Amino acid sequence: MLIQIINPNTSKEITQKLATLAEHTKSKQTKVIVRSPQHGPRSIECFVDEQIASASLLDLVIQGESENVDAHIVACFSDPALYAAREVSSAPVIGIAEASFKFASTISAKFGIVTMLTRAIPMIQGLLFKYGYEKYCTNVRSAEIPVLDLNNISNQDYQSLYQECGKSISQDGAEAIVLGCAGMSELAQELSQQLGVPVIDGVSAAIKHAESLVQLGLSTSKSGQFSTPLSKEFIGRYNHLSSS
Amino acid sequence: MLIQIINPNTSKEITQKLATLAEHTKSKQTKVIVRSPQHGPRSIECFVDEQIASASLLDLVIQGESENVDAHIVACFSDPALYAAREVSSAPVIGIAEASFKFASTISAKFGIVTMLTRAIPMIQGLLFKYGYEKYCTNVRSAEIPVLDLNNISNQDYQSLYQECGKSISQDGAEAIVLGCAGMSELAQELSQQLGVPVIDGVSAAIKHAESLVQLGLSTSKSGQFSTPLSKEFIGRYNHLSSS
Amino acid sequence: MLIQIINPNTSKEITQKLATLAEHTKSKQTKVIVRSPQHGPRSIECFVDEQIASASLLDLVIQGESENVDAHIVACFSDPALYAAREVSSAPVIGIAEASFKFASTISAKFGIVTMLTRAIPMIQGLLFKYGYEKYCTNVRSAEIPVLDLNNISNQDYQSLYQECGKSISQDGAEAIVLGCAGMSELAQELSQQLGVPVIDGVSAAIKHAESLVQLGLSTSKSGQFSTPLSKEFIGRYNHLSSS
Amino acid sequence: MLIQIINPNTSKEITQKLATLAEHTKSKQTKVIVRSPQHGPRSIECFVDEQIASASLLDLVIQGESENVDAHIVACFSDPALYAAREVSSAPVIGIAEASFKFASTISAKFGIVTMLTRAIPMIQGLLFKYGYEKYCTNVRSAEIPVLDLNNISNQDYQSLYQECGKSISQDGAEAIVLGCAGMSELAQELSQQLGVPVIDGVSAAIKHAESLVQLGLSTSKSGQFSTPLSKEFIGRYNHLSSS
Amino acid sequence: MLIQIINPNTSKEITQKLATLAEHTKSKQTKVIVRSPQHGPRSIECFVDEQIASASLLDLVIQGESENVDAHIVACFSDPALYAAREVSSAPVIGIAEASFKFASTISAKFGIVTMLTRAIPMIQGLLFKYGYEKYCTNVRSAEIPVLDLNNISNQDYQSLYQECGKSISQDGAEAIVLGCAGMSELAQELSQQLGVPVIDGVSAAIKHAESLVQLGLSTSKSGQFSTPLSKEFIGRYNHLSSS
Amino acid sequence: MLIQIINPNTSKEITQKLATLAEHTKSKQTKVIVRSPQHGPRSIECFVDEQIASASLLDLVIQGESENVDAHIVACFSDPALYAAREVSSAPVIGIAEASFKFASTISAKFGIVTMLTRAIPMIQGLLFKYGYEKYCTNVRSAEIPVLDLNNISNQDYQSLYQECGKSISQDGAEAIVLGCAGMSELAQELSQQLGVPVIDGVSAAIKHAESLVQLGLSTSKSGQFSTPLSKEFIGRYNHLSSS
To answer: CA of F236 to nearest chain E CA: how many angstroms apart?
Structure first.
């Protein structure tokens, strides 16, 4: 089984971190390719970043399809371009926010989300509503750490994160914590041990969810909303999409 | 890894069918125990059946815990006693309705559900609302087959089921089908081939979801709603629960 | 008119308290039988307790039907087994949470609920959503009193309860208080006088609602979800249900 | 106990019909006054009618308060001026739509509503949402009978009504029928016998609900939204309200 | 273009203030008539006031129609009688709460509302739900100023208002402020400059929205809920409506 | 006043049609610039098209800002990149779907939407939920016309459109029609005359809404979600965004 993990930002350090995490998380039989787009922002922290990354990552989905990957994972907690990616993919496409909500809600009745920046909170709240998980979530909190700091997380940043998780449990009533950024993934285990509740990393959840779907032979329905786009002309820097 | 699959009704034939399905679906490294309670109804078709089965299946969860199983699956599409089971379990407890919604919504934007009896429809609609999946579901349809007929499904029953699935796609706009009864599980693959859309069997989905959680070291949060019940006296036929 | 009041736990003291309350509340022409099951937990404080009590109380509903009672009241604030009870009953079956919401919303635009234990709060929130009363409720608070303490309430417990009611009014904006436990019923009047707002006891509300339905000749619809269960085999300790 | 039933339109025939119905429905110990305003429309069939009737009926609530009535019933299915009436009343004020939803939902999982005119349907749908009963209602249907025809209902009108009720059951899945107009009240029993499901008349339900509240000593909370209006000047035809 | 602005209370001072504001806000080509009813309360602060004002303002809508006004504005933040006014109008009828929500949500993702009295908060929350804007609003706050004080606002009142707006931004996360009372309209600009976020006055928004609709030739649909009322008899002080 | 209208697809014919429409709709004092991006798809008919157009149109918003336009309109009924555009804009940014819902809901209680392709329906339903207008919309229908056919609409296409509008009114109960595609804008008037109900074209509504906001001095709040993005590096084809 071959899974493509797409880091939708263009930070090589985060791509590298995802590769390390994936090697550790995946089943033996699974192979992973971890890639980031050739175009776009170094980090995704606002709606502009997300829109540009969305357009860029579609190239990687198309490339992965031509390489017959068995599943695609979009490894940014805003789940960028998820529906568009499913249109150009016959394999399943999994967002890490969606996957983490699905895992967290099986093992807790109420989970809290801790993300990097206050600015990302409304984006995440929008996903909770879109996916129907708003009743499961106690609150979305921010540790106020710039995303690129995650390339080399300081002790101070870790403490900020740990403290917001703690408030989520003691003040908001969270029974589990969802980490609201792909860059935090490697911290899940340590945080869980310190906090005494499950901590869900969306990248790991997405890898396992991808393996599950592939093992069951389940793939993106091409009937309805995710059916293949009609051919049409794209001009300028998107000319290469004209034949898709 | 050891997974306990609980058939909450007392029909040995369905328990046997689930065992066969599980052997086929599980990963090599996984072992499964498939059990049904010693007490309760032969099938679950109404609220009374569900309440009795709920009380009965808790004994199996407690037994599984004492045997250190790594996960429990409750294999009835009404997800009976799910929250109570999580109270007495340190391992994850997975309902097949919940699992099937989580898998179906990754590969389709709208799914339909086809169950056995009209009477089960409101129960399933209740679960869609409880879990937040009501916007994903086009409709819940019934093929009008008594649950126990599934022990030995006739060609006529298969045709009824096939036709309701077809209507779900063509009339309701379903892009994938969720089978709304554990007893239908073995038919998923054949139906999918005939219908041309993914067909999700909740038992298989639950097995894969259980394997995923165990592989990630994620288990029921014991902080909050699913914390262990306080000891108290139970009398009469539930005396054995007094020390739990 | 004969009304059966079912105390779903097996605490004789609470059953006795309910009998005293019922005698005081009922109309002259009404007779009441107050019973608790022969099997099950001494108190209902978590999902396990509720599931066991649900299975046990159905025996009493069936017994009451054979005695031609005119209505059944399920006197626990989690409204256990309400839908199943309606399946085996031709008489109306009334839950005390449902009844208290219906009465409170006629005399206030926003009511608060005060219950015994924090653990019970999510169960009650679930009922508010299920019944459509979530917009009416300001908050669910807990006085942190073990249910069985209610058999003989101390002054300290009363003060805790009184203070949570007060916070519900002054901090949350509640215009009336619903008592979230059958065991508190006898305190409603005293609390109302001290607090200066209406205090609704669900048991009293349910008795009056039962009398109303019977006087109007309205009873459980046997068309649809509450129609009589099909006969089937139950084994083991539920063998006696086989002929129902 | 003295209950005031307010017919908010100015049709004496309907007032008379309500008086007859009330005599038949009320408990022996209850006395009823049935009144209609001195000002306003002969029937309530649109938003203009409802607004005018709302302003008019408040005079009767104030009059009833001065006569120390124990409860007020507003006997029009649009529940006009319910919140304003509660401001000027220390006794409970009950709307017949609200009451009928509360009674119907105790004895059925899904009820249908049949009203007189298509034009009234959105008003009723608004009430279902406002009170939180939208999930309980299968559909609102209209029999297309002008309200004043109810003064002397023809066989043809009865047949129209009966047929819409039948469609509500067979096509929409209603398990009980709520009559969506005070003028239909006397037909409930006959319709129920013919249809084989419970038929709820809101006027009768409101009378019983009023008796229940009064017997329990529960009355409109004067803390919060329904507190007494501040004194202020009203000019012109509402000058008499200046001292309220 | 001729727009009628209806002040639904009978305070001449507020009517005068609205006239001044309208002259300043309207386009050159627009003419405005500002009127208040001959009957009703001096201010609208509770449900009784609103019901009486609703009945009174309909006379002005009818008068405006006979004068061929191009649009009507109902200038009270409870949007009284909006649906009834549309029934008797062929021109558009615009409520200031509705208009302010529509403008605020175009320029902010979350807005706060600051009104005069705590008592008005539930009325406004009801409108947010009715119009579908509850997700856009962070909170409704009150500055605790009696409506008629607005005739001649003191520095202290302005400071109270300013401080609640500030809390809405810093504590609730509001990105823009909606002024929840027609009497505050003239303060919008000054508040916006001091607060550094957009401040929306519903009267101005409604005037612009009215001009827009008229310029596009869009007017109240007379098909469906807002179709002209059937003729019927009104008695007493509403006799003049009999021919409408 | 200078308004930029962005046609997010790259079809020059549609850009030209929008220019003609805008000249006809705008106020005398308003100047408009109508532009389409240099990059991207010829039409927007699926999620891929929308994501690419979203990334492309941001360049035009940034360009317009540098030219000090007073407002931006995004003239595609999927409201692409609306939130991102607001981040890079100090002027208001208006989507045509959002604008059309705001205008339609002032003049009708229920509106229907008719769009070009079945495939666009879920996108529009998503917007209805996001903006809170789902209760106002009776149904979204499709006339099954490829978007680019609108460059030169045939009589047959017009008839298809007309018939779907008619069904929306007679079968779904729509009281007004919203045209669900910018390319249909010029047909609004003719359709309205034939159908006898208001027909809302989102482009015209957006132009008027833009003029209104500018006249009132209201602009995008730069506090909160729409605040200016932090500077960061963009690589590859988005390098030009690095300094934004």
So the answer is: 31
Cα(E92)–Cα(E218) distance, integer angstroms: 8
Q: 3-state class of C143 per DSSP? A: coil
Amino acid code (one letter) for B58 = L
pLDDT of residue F147: 66
What's the DSSP call for residue D206? H
The pLDDT-based confidence of B154 (bands split at 50, 70, 90) is: confident
C122–chain A nearest CA distance, Å? 9
Contact C72, C93 (CB under 8 A): yes
Query: Which residues have C-beta within 8 Å of that of residue A14, sequence separation ≥ 6?
Result: A7, A36, A150, A151, A182, A183
Closest listed residue to residue E221, CA positions, set D108, D213, F107: F107
Subunits with 3+ C-beta pairs closer than 8 A to F:
A, B, D, E
| F71 DSSP β-pair partners | F3
The first and second tokens of residue D40, run together, are 């306003």
CB–CB of F205 and E225 under 8 A?
no
Question: For chain D, how big is the Rg over CA atoms in Å?
Answer: 17
Q: What value does the mean pLDDT take over residues A158-177?
A: 96
User: What is the rounded CA–CA span in Å between residue B52 and residue B38?
Assistant: 12
ipTM of the complex: 0.97
Pick from B51, B42, B35: which is nearest to B147 by CA? B42
Distance CA A170, CA A168 (A): 6
pLDDT value at B148 more than 80: no
Query: Does A210 lie in the same domain as A130?
Result: no
| Rg, chain A, Cα only | 17
Using the beta-carbon criterion (under 8 Å), do A52 and F55 form an inter-chain contact?
Answer: yes
Question: Which segment of C88-92, E10-14, E102-106 scores lowest on mean pLDDT?
Answer: E10-14
Percent of chain C whose pLDDT exceeds 90: 88
Residue B189's domain is classified under what CATH number?
Answer: 3.40.50.12500
Chains in touch with A (3+ beta-carbon pairs under 8 Å) read B, C, E, F
Kindly state whether residues F6 and F43 are assigned to the same domain. yes
Q: How many contiguous H segments (helices) and E segments (strands) does chain F have?
A: 8, 10
Q: Distance between CA D238 and CA D244 in Å, rounded?
A: 11
* Residues in CB range of C17: below 8 A, 6 or more apart: C150, C151, C183, C185, C186
Q: Are residues B48 and B81 located together in one domain of the fold?
A: yes
Statement to judge: residues B131 and B53 lie in one domain: no
Q: How confident is the model at residue D108, as a pLDDT?
A: 98
pLDDT at D195 over 90: yes
C137 and C60 in one domain? no
State whether A65 and A85 are in the same domain: yes
The span from the CA of D115 to the CA of A125, in Å, is 40
Q: Which residue in E196, B194, D161 sits closest to F222, CA to CA?
A: E196
**Same domain membership, residue A43 and residue A63:** yes
Task: State the pLDDT at residue E70.
Answer: 98
Range of the domain at D164: 97-202
- What is the pLDDT at residue F243? 73
Q: Could you tell me which of B103, B56, B93 has the C-alpha nearest to residue B73?
A: B93
Q: How far apart are CA C107 and CA C235, in angstroms?
A: 48
Take residue A24 and report the two structure tokens written for it: 């550790």
Distance (Å) from the C-alpha of residue B67 to the closest C-alpha of chain A? 20
CA-CA distance, B24 to B204, in Å (whole number)?
Answer: 9
What pLDDT is recorded for position C183? Answer: 83
Task: Based on the fold, state whether residues B113 and B85 are members of the same structural domain.
Answer: no
Tens of pLDDT, residues C109-147: 999 999 998 988 989 999 999 999 999 999 999 998 876
Q: Model confidence over D216-243: pLDDT tens digits? A: 999 999 999 999 998 999 999 999 999 7
CA-CA distance, B233 to D108, in Å (whole number)? 35
Q: Which pair of tokens denotes residue B238? A: 């539930």
Domain total in chain A: 2
Q: What is the mean pLDDT of residues F206-220?
A: 98
